[in-house]
Automatic annotation (TrEMBL):
The keyword S-adenosyl-L-methionine applies. Residues 421-448 are annotated as: Disordered. PROSITE patterns: RADICAL_SAM. This is 7,8-didemethyl-8-hydroxy-5-deazariboflavin synthase subunit CofH. PANTHER family: FO SYNTHASE (COFH), LIPOYL SYNTHASE 2. Its cofactor is [4Fe-4S] cluster. It comes from the Archaea.
Length: 448
């Protein structure tokens, strides 16, 4: 565990081994970025800091980095801006992991039948999940995304439940579902329930996969294969946070380490699932950690070729323990957001799509990011609890008409996509616009 001395967002007060200093020069790194030479970690640090030898971000240099990234985006994926018709169906907020950047979770003992605690968390049964997804499929979604807290009653399947019930280990974060007001079922039951009419199921982060094998000797491959058999189509790489253990030890000591995350993602790819990757930045880490993270993701993609998109997630500090305890004073600056997107595009030469999340950045800044290296504008998100509960204020749903208007306002081409980007449809003609790629989508807007 790294010692923390309060009062900074930069990690200066933390005894980190990695610091954002290099022998490289900004101009050299920029020249390499412009001509498409594979960048090193030192290059990335120079670009993220606009020169590690000077204080603060140099505006002129920053614009040069953004321009290089925008140019690379245009070369690689052209003018199209993609988005997917999706639903977020998060199953439960019950979680004891205690990540300091998270306000999505609620301590699970509040969910016990015996508890009279007043909380606004939730758990859904598989039947409830199915109803919610079935309704959204009828409306026309292509994908359901599901990321949940690590509810102690969750087991992978009935075999796993038996193992957990029989165990006398006290360190497995397990409790029988009968102790809770609502039984979330097993992961397999939830995936089967959400797999309605062939809708794409995007779920089971590495952290959830680790929870789904706790107390067993099962490999991640066995877990993801079982989930794929139940209807899982792809796995989100959220829970990556920062893939450097000295940062994870501060912000999420209860989570699997960097190698565990990489092992799980590689296993998902091995059983044939597409995966995504994220970075959550702008809390206690520094630019060296961001650059190392990008390097680890690029190496993973070299090995798997299964990462469909990279998603930089700007830390939303309100209502999080990191902020409440005074460990950070806020999230990243707008300049840091822009550079994170741009350097992701320039560094990840083997990942085609970089996403700007309108939930995290808002519309205006999201559009700027689409001109700084990003080419994907996320999804419609019929319901989005995670960002709202952490204090994000950018709404919960984006209609196709809103998408078309925003994307065309910057002279780009709106394109509805499948989760894996392999199916795409350019949107033109007069509104109203609606999805056409989902199992029951017929062009009618998702919400009238
Ligand atoms: S980030 Fe996930 S694992 Fe960590 S506390 Fe929040 S819900 Fe739990």
């Amino acid at each position: 565990m790294v010692a923390f001395e309060s009062g900074t967002n930069t990690g200066d007060a933390l005894a980190f081994e990695h610091s954002p200093e290099t022998d490289q020069h900004f101009e050299n790194a920029l020249a390499k970025a412009r001509d498409g030479t594979r960048l090193t970690v030192a290059d990335a640090i120079e670009l993220l800091t606009t020169g590690s030898g000077t204080d603060g971000i140099d505006r002129e240099r920053k614009e040069q980095v953004l321009e290089a990234a925008d140019h690379r985006r245009a070369e690689l994926v052209g003018r199209e801006v993609t988005f997917v018709a999706n639903l977020n169906n998060n199953v439960t907020t019950a979680c004891n992991t205690g990540c300091l950047f998270c306000n999505f979770k609620d301590r699970s003992d509040q969910f016990l039948e015996s508890s009279d605690a007043d909380h606004d968390g939730f758990t859904k049964t598989p039947t409830q999940s199915r109803e919610i997804v079935a309704d959204a499929v009828e409306r026309g979604i292509y994908e359901v995304t599901s990321v949940s807290g690590l509810h102690p009653a969750f087991a992978l399947d009935d075999d796993h439940r038996e193992i957990l019930e029989a165990s006398d280990r006290g360190d497995l974060n397990y409790r029988s579902p009968s102790a809770y007001e609502v039984d979330p079922g097993t992961y397999v039951e939830q995936i089967e329930a959400m797999s309605v009419d062939g809708v794409h199921v995007h779920s089971m982060t590495p952290e959830e996969a680790a929870h789904a094998r706790r107390g067993t000797a099962w490999s991640y491959e066995e877990v993801y294969r079982r989930l794929a058999d139940a209807g899982l189509d792809s796995a989100p790489g959220t829970a990556a946070e920062i893939l450097v253990d000295e940062v994870r030890d501060v912000i999420c000591p209860g989570k699997i380490d960097s190698d565990g995350w990489l092992e799980a993602m590689e296993a998902a790819a091995t059983v044939g699932l597409d995966i995504t990757a994220t970075i959550m930045y702008g809390h206690v880490e520094n630019e060296a950690h961001r650059a190392i993270h990008l390097d680890r993701v690029r190496e993973l993609q070299d090995r798997t070729d299964a990462i469909t998109e990279f998603i930089p997630l700007s830390f939303v500090h309100q209502n999080t323990p990191l902020y409440d305890y005074g460990m950070v004073e806020g999230g990243p600056t707008v300049q840091e957001d822009e550079l994170m997107i741009a350097v992701s595009r320039l560094f990840l030469d083997n990942v085609d799509h970089i996403q700007a999340s309108w939930v995290k950045y808002g519309d205006q800044q999201g559009l700027k990011l689409l001109n700084s290296g990003a080419d994907d504008f996320m999804g419609t998100i019929l319901s989005e609890e995670i960002t709202k509960r952490a204090g994000g204020g950018f709404g919960e749903y984006r209609s196709f008409d809103q998408y078309v208007e925003l994307i065309e306002s910057i002279g780009r081409i709106p394109v509805e996509r499948s989760t894996d980007y392999r199916t795409r449809r350019r949107i033109d003609g007069d509104p109203p616009h609606g999805p056409t790629l989902g199992p029951k989508a017929d062009g009618t807007p998702l919400i009238e």
